[in-house]
């Protein structure tokens, strides 16, 4: 809204109150303002529009024809402003506010739902708007203000985060794969394998390419896919191997094999708040997750 528009809002509020009450004093009482302030605002609005909006009617006031026309035009936007302000106030309430919370696909089936269910017991009236995404998408939404809080893997360097734990990355193959019986596998041994991977903007894809480059080869990628459950199904059907975190639900067709070699094959799990000041409801969820999420996530990674 322009500065001129912002300046008109209190004038229009005084105008609507006086029009509804047909009385300046009652309008002032309704707005909890001195009568002189309401009168000045009405005079200022009439100066802006250039025509009289009221005429005297006994001890009260009545709208002129121009005043009736203006009232009809402003009622809808004024109601929208009132509703917007009420929504913002309600969303900031520490007991019943709204929290826009993001989390990664790899913690979706068990860990995060379990945490949110426990949080709901302690704060049953706080509303959650949930978003799942990969690290870059969640970070962008935190920076843009469309998320209040998120669990991000790996924790972004450009935002302050609280470390909840580490997420191990292992090799996943089908049960019929020649490597399925191994206790561990060095990345260098995978040079001849066919990989199933996320698109290039995913962190796991970056880690795959980095670790393979360190081992002296570029991975041969046959399938690119964003959805992890479908990726695991492709692996179980023998269509390739992948470097992934442990699944949170049972996949009988998969075998996970720890990775060996010089690199530490883990990712930091970060709890990240938006760059804006958190609402009381968002701060309640942040404090709860900081206290409880590490234990749950660590258990899911074993």
From TrEMBL:
<keyword id="KW-0805">Transcription regulation</keyword>
<dbReference type="GO" id="GO:0003677">
    <property type="term" value="F:DNA binding"/>
</dbReference>
<keyword id="KW-0804">Transcription</keyword>
<dbReference type="InterPro" id="IPR036388">
    <property type="entry name" value="WH-like_DNA-bd_sf"/>
</dbReference>
<dbReference type="Pfam" id="PF00126">
    <property type="entry name" value="HTH_1"/>
</dbReference>
<dbReference type="GO" id="GO:0003700">
    <property type="term" value="F:DNA-binding transcription factor activity"/>
</dbReference>
<keyword id="KW-0238">DNA-binding</keyword>
<feature type="domain" description="HTH lysR-type">
    <location>
        <begin position="11"/>
        <end position="64"/>
    </location>
</feature>
<comment type="similarity">
    <text>Belongs to the LysR transcriptional regulatory family.</text>
</comment>
<dbReference type="InterPro" id="IPR000847">
    <property type="entry name" value="LysR_HTH_N"/>
</dbReference>
<dbReference type="GO" id="GO:0032993">
    <property type="term" value="C:protein-DNA complex"/>
</dbReference>
<dbReference type="Pfam" id="PF03466">
    <property type="entry name" value="LysR_substrate"/>
</dbReference>
<dbReference type="InterPro" id="IPR036390">
    <property type="entry name" value="WH_DNA-bd_sf"/>
</dbReference>
<dbReference type="InterPro" id="IPR005119">
    <property type="entry name" value="LysR_subst-bd"/>
</dbReference>
<protein>
    <submittedName>
        <fullName>Transcriptional regulator, LysR family protein</fullName>
    </submittedName>
</protein>
């Amino acid at each position: 809204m322009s500065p001129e528009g912002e300046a008109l809002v209190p004038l229009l509020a005084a105008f609507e109150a006086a029009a509804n009450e047909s009385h300046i004093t009652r309008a002032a009482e309704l707005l909890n303002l001195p009568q002189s302030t309401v009168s000045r605002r009405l005079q200022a609005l009439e100066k802006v529009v250039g025509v009289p909006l009221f005429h005297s009617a006994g001890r009260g006031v009545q709208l002129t024809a121009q005043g009736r026309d203006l009232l009809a035009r402003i009622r809808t936007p004024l109601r929208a402003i009132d509703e917007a302000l009420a929504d913002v106030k309600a969303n900031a309430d520490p007991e019943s506010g709204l929290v826009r919370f993001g989390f990664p696909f790899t913690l979706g089936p068990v860990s995060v739902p379990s945490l949110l269910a426990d949080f709901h017991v302690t704060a049953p009236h706080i509303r959650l708007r949930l978003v799942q995404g990969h690290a870059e998408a969640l970070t962008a939404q935190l920076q843009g203000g469309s998320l209040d809080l998120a669990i991000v893997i790996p924790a972004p360097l450009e935002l302050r985060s609280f470390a909840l734990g580490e997420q191990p990355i292992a090799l996943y193959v089908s049960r019929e794969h020649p490597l399925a019986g191994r206790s561990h596998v060095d990345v260098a041994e995978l040079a001849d394998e066919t990989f199933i991977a996320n698109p290039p903007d995913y962190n796991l894809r970056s880690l795959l390419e980095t670790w393979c480059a360190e081992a002296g080869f570029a991975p041969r990628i046959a399938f690119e896919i964003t959805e992890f459950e479908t990726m695991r199904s492709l692996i179980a059907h023998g269509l390739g191997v992948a470097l992934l975190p442990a699944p949170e639900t049972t996949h009988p067709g998969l075998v996970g094999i720890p990775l060996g070699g010089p690199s530490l094959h883990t990712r930091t799990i970060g709890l990240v708040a938006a760059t804006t000041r958190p609402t009381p409801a968002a701060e309640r969820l942040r404090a709860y997750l900081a206290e409880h999420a590490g234990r749950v996530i660590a258990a899911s990674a074993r």
